[in-house]
Amino acid sequence: MAKKKAVKKAAPAPAKTTTAKPAQKLKAVASPAKPATVDRIVMRTGEALVEAEPAWSAAEPEVVIGELDGPVGYAMANLLGDQIKGHSRVFAILNCDVQVRPATLMVSKVTVKSEAYTNILMGTVQAAIANGVLDAVRKGDIPKEKANDLGIIISVWLDPSVTSVEIDHNILFDTHRQATAKAIAKAMKHEPSIDWLLEHQHEIQHCFKPA
């Protein structure tokens, strides 16, 4: 009886071992810094009074400040497109062909009836207001980066007596410039604050209220 040949089974091939590669660390890529954004300014309001010794020097502007694509901008467009005799609305300019930024629309509180009054309002006072606006930007009360986005409406008080007395245009320029910058600063800082008003309410008497 023939013997079966023993069949040698091949030894299993050793398992291949793989050395795990260390995970590659991703280099952190710093994202570019985003410029600081300034909150949207819908509407701010303010007023001021600045006067020198002569009565005609008094400047008492009232201002509203806000985005050009908001209620202030819409009001400016309507005022500019709806001119009224005696209350012409014009932009504040440093000189002819040099409009100030933020765009500032002047509205006279006094009904303008004479060329003499117009020349002072649209000359000395107009230039003073333009400079006052730039002073507010330079001081930081109006963010420089918002100069093209904001609009200002300024209600202007120019004493009617300026046409009947001899005036010093430098004094008039200074009071309106200072008053404009002051009114803007108060508007942007919400001054006076409600806390201050409540604390001092009974101490303050209106200057034209009879005692």
How would you describe what is shown here?
The chain is of the alpha+beta class. It has a domain of 141 residues: 2-Layer Sandwich (Ribosomal Protein S5, domain 2), CATH 3.30.230. Helix content is 30%, strand content 15%. The chain has 4 helices and 7 strands, in the order E-E-H-E-E-E-E-H-E-H-H. The strands form 2 sheets. A 5-stranded mixed beta sheet has the order 1-2-7-6-3, sandwiched between helices. It has a two-stranded antiparallel sheet with strand order 4-5. Strand 4 and strand 5 form a beta hairpin. Helix 2 crosses helix 3. It is globular and about 50 Å long. The model has no long low-confidence stretch (mean pLDDT 88).
User: If classified by CATH, what would the architecture of the domain at 48-188 be?
Assistant: 2-Layer Sandwich
Strand order across the biggest sheet?
Answer: 1-2-7-6-3
Question: Got a strand count?
Answer: 7
Question: What is the CATH first-level class name of the domain at 48-188?
Answer: Alpha Beta
Instruction: State the shape.
Output: globular
Write down the Rg.
35 Å
Mean pLDDT: 88
Question: Key terms for this structure?
Answer:
30% helix; HCHO-activating_enzyme; 4 helices; lyase; globular; Ribosomal_Su5_D2-typ_SF; 5-stranded mixed β-sheet; 211 residues
